[in-house]
Amino acid sequence: MQPLLGVLLLDTRFPRIPGDIGNAASYPYPVRFRVVRGATVPRVVTRDIDRRLLEPFLQCARELEQEGVRAITTSCGFLVLFQDELASQLRVPFFASSLLQIPLVYRMVQRPIGVITANAAALTPAHLRAAGVDGSIPVLIGGLEDREAFASAILRDGPELDAQAVEGEVVETAQALLERNPEIGAFVCECHNLAPYGPAIQRATGRPIFDIFSLIALVIQAVAKPVFVDQAMQETRES
C-alpha cells in the first residue's frame, strides 16, 4: 500500500517510543520516514535555526514526494521557520509544526492557549509569527529545558528515555502553567515527541490537548477521504 504520510526526521539517537512522531507503530496507515542528516537538535531547537539545513530538508521532502506520499510533516515544531519555503516548493501539503494549529484552536476556545515546548528560551515571536500567530492571540509558554529526564533524552539526544519520568515532567509543566494562568482554554504541544503524554496532560488539566497527531489527522482526512457514499448505498440496497 502506498504511504500516505512522509515524515522528515531530525538526525537523532534517542528512543522513539510508541506515540512518538518517528515510530511507525504510532500510525494506522503506511508512513515513510526520511532522516535529514546533520539536522541535529542543537541546530534546530534554537532561537536562530541553521539556515544551511533548508536545502537538505527540501531535498528529502522532494524524495518523499517522488515516492508517492500524499502529505509531509516533520519531527520538530521549531521547523515552522521553514514552513513557507518548503510548502511553496512541494506539490503535496506540507505542515512543519504543530504550532500551525494555534490560530484555529484559539478561534475555537476564545481563551489563552498554553504551549508546551521543548525549550521556552528558544521559542521566539518569530516562530509564532511563522505559525500565523499574531499579537491578537494570547499565548502562554511552558518549557521543558530544565526538566532533566526530558532534556537528557531529547535536548541532549541521550541513548535512553525514561517515559514515566518524562510524562511526570510534562504533566508538572502543564499544571504549573495552568496554575499561573487558570484562564488557559487549551494546550498545544510544540514538541512532536510529546504525543505519548497527551492523555496524562488531559487528565491532569481537564483541557483539550492538541499536538502533531491532531494536525496529522486533519491533513490525512483531507488527502485520503474516507468513502461513505458506497457504504450508504449498499446498506440502502440491503434494506
Proper CATH architecture of the largest domain: 3-Layer(aba) Sandwich
Main β-sheet: number of strands, strand sense, barrel status? 4 strands, parallel
Structural class: alpha/beta
* Number of helical stretches of at least 4 residues: 10
Question: What is shown here, in short?
Answer:
The chain has ten helices and eight strands.
Structural key phrases:
4-stranded parallel β-sheet; single chain; Rossmann fold; alpha/beta; 2 domains; 239 residues
General description of the model:
The protein has 239 residues and is of the alpha/beta class. The protein has two domains: 5-97 and 215-223, 3-Layer(aba) Sandwich (Rossmann fold), CATH 3.40.50.1860; 99-211, Rossmann fold. Helix content is 38%, strand content 13%. The chain contains ten helices and eight strands. The strands form two sheets. A four-stranded parallel sheet has the order 2-1-3-4, sandwiched between helices. A four-stranded parallel sheet has the order 6-5-7-8. Helix 3 links the parallel strand 3 (71-74) and strand 4. Helix 7 (163-180) packs parallel to helix 8. The longest helix is centred in the last third of the chain and has 18 residues, at 163-180.
